[in-house]
User: Which sequence fits this backbone?
């Protein structure tokens, strides 16, 4: 049976819960706000299925992509509504329109928790667009995927690498009507921390002018990667929460709008402060998940093909299977091959989060000792305050990302000497 002795040994994919023939495993939340499997030993028959399909216990070999693309959707409006190049929605359009298929992805529920779900319509799939930097609750998605596959429906499943690995383990065989698309993952923050942050927003403690609200504001939309306004773009995206004052007045307003690196929750996320313990030793990096495609932001596209660059969003796509390659190339996508030896040597095709786990920060333990009692945003600010060297590095990194060649040698020097 599954026996989690160290938290780093469980990525929370729920494959064990879904595979159990006696349904004696359930996910329970720990003190950090993450879900872990708990076994009812009175019911368990010790069949060992949960251990056989666990992606932590059965890690695959790392793979090299068979092709690498820079890509963007043909429709600029769709790109602006997506986190990067709109590739997820291009794949979705083909699945729904041409395959009469089903798409799985993550969305917000009515309480703004992040959950995995499915849709059979394009309209429903819009909820899966844009990044959600919180670990999603998988529920019984794996069973639903299998049911659709056995009925002959075409299924596209999107998720983090560990979720893809969990699904592959659960299915225990390959299906020619399944397309798996992993979203390159920096690490998954605690759902518990996210809930506390949302509650602080509702209590108006994070608003610039909380006195404007006579009662708790009602959240109507959350976007971690806002880039549609004149204020933000793909390179300088915003963290934006929309809402309305209350049910009586129905007055719509912007509750929070700030550049991503100034938003408290994003600061903690980018500093790896409250990622799941397994994220610091991810079992599914480097295409070990078995996915067909892997999608990320192509931050360095200006170095490879400046003619393809714009600020509406460009996706970096790693292709891991011939099936994925054929499907991708048949979609409504503008793409170019970017896998020349020169580009690879210079590191322009390298998305660090796709190949390396996050490094556990020294302040993580301190954060989780205090997060329930202290003001969340003040605690995040206190524990993520950058050193002078870090500030200089981030400043030069952002300049370089915007196509500055002058700072290149200084950037490498400072990064090497940061402690």
Assistant:
């Amino acid at each position: 049976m599954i026996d989690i002795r160290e938290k780093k040994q469980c990525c929370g994919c729920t494959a064990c819960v879904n595979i159990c023939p006696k349904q004696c495993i359930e996910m329970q939340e720990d003190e950090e706000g993450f879900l872990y499997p708990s076994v009812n030993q009175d019911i368990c028959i010790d069949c060992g299925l949960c251990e056989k399909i666990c992606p932590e216990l059965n890690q695959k070999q790392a793979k090299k992509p068979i092709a690498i693309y820079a890509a963007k959707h043909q429709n600029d409006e769709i790109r602006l509504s997506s986190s990067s190049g709109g590739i997820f929605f291009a794949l979705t359009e083909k699945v729904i329109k041409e395959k009469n298929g089903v798409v799985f992805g993550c969305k917000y529920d009515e309480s703004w928790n992040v959950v995995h779900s499915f849709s059979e319509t394009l309209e429903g799939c819009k909820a899966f667009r844009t990044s959600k930097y919180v670990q999603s609750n998988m529920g019984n998605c794996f069973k639903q995927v299998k049911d659709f596959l056995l009925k002959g429906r075409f299924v596209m499943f999107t998720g983090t690498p560990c979720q893809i690995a969990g699904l592959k383990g659960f299915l225990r065989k390959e299906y020619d009507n399944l397309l798996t698309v992993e979203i390159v993952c920096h690490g998954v923050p605690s759902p518990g921390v996210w809930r506390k942050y949302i509650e602080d927003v509702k209590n108006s403690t994070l608003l610039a002018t909380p006195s404007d609200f006579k009662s708790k504001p009602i959240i109507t939309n959350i976007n971690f990667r806002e880039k549609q306004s004149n204020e933000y773009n793909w390179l300088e995206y915003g963290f934006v929460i929309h809402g309305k004052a209350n049910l009586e007045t129905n007055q719509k307003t912007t509750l929070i709008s700030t550049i991503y690196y100034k938003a408290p929750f994003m600061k903690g996320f980018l500093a790896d402060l409250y990622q799941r313990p397994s994220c610091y030793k991810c079992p599914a990096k480097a295409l070990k998940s078995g996915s067909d495609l892997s999608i990320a932001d192509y931050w360095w596209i200006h170095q490879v093909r400046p003619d393809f660059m714009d600020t509406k969003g460009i996706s970096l796509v790693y292709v891991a299977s011939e099936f994925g390659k054929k499907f991708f190339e048949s979609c409504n996508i503008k793409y170019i091959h970017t896998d020349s030896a020169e580009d690879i040597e210079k590191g322009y095709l390298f998305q660090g989060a796709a190949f390396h786990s996050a490094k556990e920060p020294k302040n993580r333990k301190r954060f989780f000792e205090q997060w329930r009692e202290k003001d969340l945003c003040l605690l995040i600010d206190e524990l993520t305050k950058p050193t002078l060297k870090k500030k200089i590095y981030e400043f030069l990194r952002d300049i370089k990302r915007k196509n500055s060649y002058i700072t290149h040698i200084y950037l490498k020097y400072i990064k090497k000497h940061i402690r």
